Amino acid sequence: MAVGERLRRRVVTVASLVRLQTLFTAPPDVVLGAALVVAAGRSVPFTHLVGVIAVSMLVSAGGATLNDAVDAPRDAVANPERPIPRGYLSRWAGFGLGGVLFAAAVLGARAVSPLAAGVTALLVATVVLYDGFLIRTPLGSLGMGTTRGLNVVLGVTAGGTAGLPWPLVVAPVVTGGYAAAVTGMAGRQPDGRHRGPIVVAGLGAAAATVATGWYVAARTPSLFSAATAFALLLAFFLWTARTIVTAYVAPFPAIVTAAGESCVLALVVLEAALAAVTAPLWGLATLAFLVPAVGLARAYPVP
Predict the structure, then answer these.
(1) Axis-axis angle for helices 223-249, 253-276 (nearest 10)
(2) HSE-up of residue 220 (Cα within 13 Å, Cβ side)
(3) Within 10 Å of residue 224's Cβ, how many Cβ atoms?
(4) This protein's superkingdom (predicted)?
(5) What's the pLDDT score for residue 229?
(6) Distance (Å, rounded) from C-alpha 243 to C-alpha 249?
(7) pLDDT at 190
(8) In this predicted structure, what is the pLDDT of residue 99?
(9) How far is CA 94 from CA 44, 77, 167, in A?
(10) pLDDT for the residue numbered 301
């Protein structure tokens, strides 16, 4: 095999392991957290924001790699096209790479602040618990929701604190709750007879819409901020409603799984609505990550 071909395969292998398609769904959590800090009247140094965004992506990459290593025996049957079953990387090398990415995340967070490092360590522990155990139990959805909520808290640490005054705490709760609700639908579906995860996702999307609408009203932002937030919230509602109804009408495994993945992307729009309450620019900064997230998801669908 030519050197160029070997290099290309290594790059593709790593990109597949870290789920390059989903890496850009993590930064919106962090940007929302930073927006909440600004809404509370504190400042967020730009370098700290960039740092925690990078840390969030490292944790996401480590979690995806660890998931592949843990699931290697099952993927050998269900997804033989994944890098580890194909022999491009050993299972233990996958564990090692995941560990390196997690360590890099904690060290990177330490460069921001000890508080950011502590939240990152807690986030890593939650991801490891999710990948290693919770994902195969009824608590899996709760585990995923917790990781998304902690990711928002990681963004909050960019402002030198991990606490938020009421009602700002509603934002990470809404984010984590919605993520938990759609996790079951985004997972691999065994057959097309069960609509339970679809109903839960629908209830989660409805609850997130109502809670976010209340949050926008309670924060009494400027007219421009309110209009931006409600426009984004309407886009989120229409996106998820169409997606979930389609899955409910035709609950075939491929359709339901695709709908779940679409609802995960819709989380970025929900977070943009929450961030827009601080200022429209924060909403747009959050929404900007949807472009690479959608583009990569379409170009490189996760097997």
Answers:
(1) 170
(2) 0
(3) 11
(4) Archaea
(5) 96
(6) 10
(7) 47
(8) 95
(9) 35, 18, 41
(10) 62
3-state per-residue secondary structure call for the chain: CCHHHHHHHHHHHHHHHCCCCCHHHCHHHHHHHHHHHHHCCCCCCHHHHHHHHHHHHHHHHHHHHHHHHHCHHHHHHHCCCCCCCCCCCCHHHHHHHHHHHHHHHHHHHHHHCHHHHHHHHHHHHHHHHHHHCHHHCCCHHHHHHHHHHHHHHHHHHHHCCCCCCCCCCHHHHHHHHHHHHHHHHHCCCCCCCCCHHHHHHHHHHHHHHHHHHHHHHHHCCCHHHHHHHHHHHHHHHHHHHHHHHHHHHCCCHHHHHHHHHHHHHHHHHHHHHHHHCCCHHHHHHHHCCHHHHHHHHHHCCCC
Domains of the chain and CATH, by start? 16-299 (1.10.357.140)
The mean pLDDT values, 10 residues at a time, for the chain of 303 residues are: 64 78 91 95 95 97 92 82 82 92 97 96 96 86 94 95 87 95 72 77 96 91 92 97 94 86 94 96 96 79 59
Spatial distance between the Cα atoms of 240 and 92, rounded to a whole number of angstroms: 38
* Tokens linked to 129: 């618990």
Distance of CA 47 to the CA centre of its chain: 22
Q: Which two tokens stand for residue 41?
A: 């009247």
Tokens for 75? Answer: 């993927």
Locate 141 and state its tokens: 């959805």
